[in-house]
Amino acid sequence: MSDLSSAALLRLLGIMARLRAPDGCGWDQIQTFASIAPYTIEEGYEVADAIRSDNLPALQDELGDLLFQVVYHAQMAQEAGAFDFAAVANTIAEKMIRRHPHVFGDAAARDAAAQTAAWEVQKQAERKARQETGTLAGIPTALPALTRAEKLAKRAARVGFDWPHVDAVFDKLAEETAELKAELAAADKARLQDEFGDMLFVMVNLARKLDIDPEESLRGANAKFERRFNAVETTLAKQGLSPADAGLEAMEAAWQHVKRQES
């Protein structure tokens, strides 16, 4: 690390300590790990948004916000006598060295596929050392449900619990769709939610089989819907109509018009 980087990090650590000091910021003083956690998650998503938009100035800003979250949690842990920022940095440094023996040790060179396989073996050993037993151990429950479903399915597939081919997943999706339809007559929301969850889980597995990122797919669908609906509103506005005034038939006609323009 250069002297400038060291100085910048020390400055940030000092700012965080000052904010939490008795004569610091009243809001920062009362925060806890739990109250800050949602901001930590949000900052991660904002980093991803800056990357997707290929906005490097925004990425610099958002990475700073994310780094501040790490500094924030480390400061609170230091106050509790648990660990500090240096311990966090050293822990991840040691982990990276341990997981890259082909770079920092004597292991043979690895390509990307071999490294991925070795990485999973190492993580499994680390989970065992933490006494996390079972194929599905260690997958955080706080992950977005779609992402966690994909990780659960991938972990199970590694030990052979998987559909043999993609057609079998389509068959399972048809089965789950039929079960959901069958529950409509009962009008039992809990049962409907359960069956809908099963169908979503199968959809995640279908994405896995097709080597598609389900989160990215849904994000793309969201963006497409937003873009097209905004265009529908613009089209109707030119006719002096709002969506509510236009009615479903006119909105559908405008929607189809927008689709044709895009294609």
UniProtKB/TrEMBL annotation:
E.C. no: 3.6.1.9
Top-level EC class: hydrolase
InterPro entries recorded: MazG-like_dom, NTP-PPase_MazG-like_C, NTP-PPase_MazG-like_N, NTP_PyrPHydrolase_MazG
Domain (NTP pyrophosphohydrolase MazG-like) ranges: 31-104, 171-230
GO MF: nucleoside triphosphate diphosphatase activity
Protein keywords: Hydrolase
Taxonomy, superkingdom: Bacteria
Keyword Hydrolase: yes
CDD domains registered for this protein in UniProt: NTP-PPase_MazG_Cterm, NTP-PPase_MazG_Nterm
Name assigned to this protein: Nucleoside triphosphate pyrophosphohydrolase
